[in-house]
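[job 0412] stage=complex_fold ligand=heme C status=START
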Amino acid sequence: MNMRIRFILWLAKTQKDDVMWKSGVPRLAVRMVALVFLCLPGIAWAGMVGSAHDFSASGWSGGEICVACHTPHNSDTTIAEAPLWNHELTNATFTVYNSPTMDVLPQQPRGPTKLCLSCHDGTIAIDSFGGTTGATFISGVANLGNDLSDDHPVSVEWIHQTVDTSPFCANCHFGPPRELVFFRPGGSGPIWIECATCHDVHDAANIPKLLRRTMAGSELCKTCHEK
Ligand code: HEC
Ligand code: HEC
Ligand code: HEC
Ligand code: HEC
Ligand code: HEC
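[job 0412] stage=complex_fold status=DONE, emitting C-alpha cells
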C-alpha cells in the first residue's frame, strides 16, 4: 500500500524535477526498472506512514493520511501550483528575508510555500480542511509565524546566484539525479526555491526533518552554496 503510494507520487512528478533527468535515458524506463527492484521483497520503503505528517492517529483525520492536505474532488483551485488542495489557506502577509548581500529578494510566499504556511504559520488550525474549521494549532519550533525574516529565503528566484565555478553545475545538471526539487510553473520562466525544495512533505527519503538531502557535512546546503 505504502509502496504503491510512493510509486504513484514518484511517477506523478512532472517538470519540476526535469533537471535531475538530463542524462538522455528515458525517465519512464528508468522508473520501470527501479520499480522492479523496489518490488523485490525485503527492501525497505520509506514514506509518510509514521512521519510528522501522518495524521492518521488523530481523531479528526478519520484515520486517513492524505485528507488534511488533498482531496480527490472539490479541491481548492484558487491558488496556483496547489495539487488537489483540501486545507484552508493562510491569508497572512509575511515579512520576508532581507539582507544587503542578497542578489535577488524573496517574494511574498508563492503557491507551494503558502501551502506549508497554511499550517506552519500558526494562524490556521491543522484540522481546518474539507470546509470544516478545526481547533488544533501547530506549536513550538514548527510554528514559523508570519515573520520569515529569520528563516532561509523561500519563494526566491534561483538565478544560479551562488554558482560561480564549474563544479557546481554537476550538483544538479549531470550524473545521478539529485534530490532537490525546484518549481517552474508551466516549464519555462523563473525557477523558484520553496519550502519543498529542501523538504519532502511526503518523507520519501526518510531523512530527519523531512529533508530531501542529508545535513551530514551540510550536504544539503552545499548543493547550492559553494562554501
Ligand atoms: C501535510 C500535507 C500533506 C499531506 C498529508 C500529503 N500531501 Fe501530497 N502534497 C502536499 C504539498 C504541500 C504538495 C505540493 C508540494 C510538493 O510537490 O512537494 C503535495 C504534492 C502532492 C502530489 C503532486 C506532486 C508530487 O510530489 O508528486 C501528489 C501526487 C501528492 N501530494 C499525493 C499525496 C498523497 C497520495 C498523500 C497521502 C498518502 C499525500 N500527498 C499527503 C502536502 C501533503
Ligand atoms: C536550493 C538551493 C539552496 C539550498 C539547498 C540552500 N540555499 Fe541558502 N540560499 C539559496 C539562495 C538562492 C539564496 C539567496 C541568495 C541571493 O539571492 O543572494 C540563499 C540565501 C542564503 C543565505 C543568506 C545570504 C545573504 O546574502 O543574506 C544564507 C546564509 C544561506 N542561504 C545559507 C544556507 C544554509 C546554511 C543552507 C543549508 C541549511 C542553505 N543555505 C541551503 C539557495 C539555497
Ligand atoms: C495540515 C497541516 C500541515 C501542512 C499543510 C504542512 N505541515 Fe509540516 N507539520 C505539520 C505538523 C502538525 C507537524 C508536527 C509538528 C510538531 O511535531 O510539533 C509538522 C512537522 C513538519 C516538519 C518537522 C518534521 C520533523 O520530523 O520534526 C517539517 C520539516 C515540516 N512539517 C515541513 C513542512 C513543509 C515543507 C510543508 C509544505 C510542503 C508542510 N510541512 C506542510 C503540519 C503541516
Ligand atoms: C542547485 C541546482 C543547480 C545548480 C548547482 C546549477 N543549476 Fe543550472 N539549473 C537548475 C535548474 C533547476 C534549472 C531549470 C530547470 C531546467 O532547465 O531543467 C537550471 C537551468 C539552467 C540553464 C538553462 C537556463 C534556464 O533558465 O532554463 C542553464 C544554461 C544552466 N542551468 C546552467 C548552469 C551552469 C553553467 C551551472 C554551473 C555553473 C549550473 N547551471 C548549476 C539548477 C541548478
Ligand atoms: C534551504 C533549505 C530549507 C528551506 C527552503 C526550508 N527549510 Fe525547513 N529546515 C531546513 C533544515 C536543514 C532543517 C533542519 C534544521 C535542524 O535540524 O537544525 C529544517 C527544519 C524545519 C522544521 C523543523 C524545525 C525544528 O527545529 O525541528 C520545520 C517545521 C521546517 N523546517 C519548515 C519549513 C517551512 C514551512 C519552510 C518554508 C516556509 C521551510 N522549512 C523551508 C531547511 C530548509
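The CA atoms of residues 155 and 194 lie 5 Å apart.
[job 0412] exit 0
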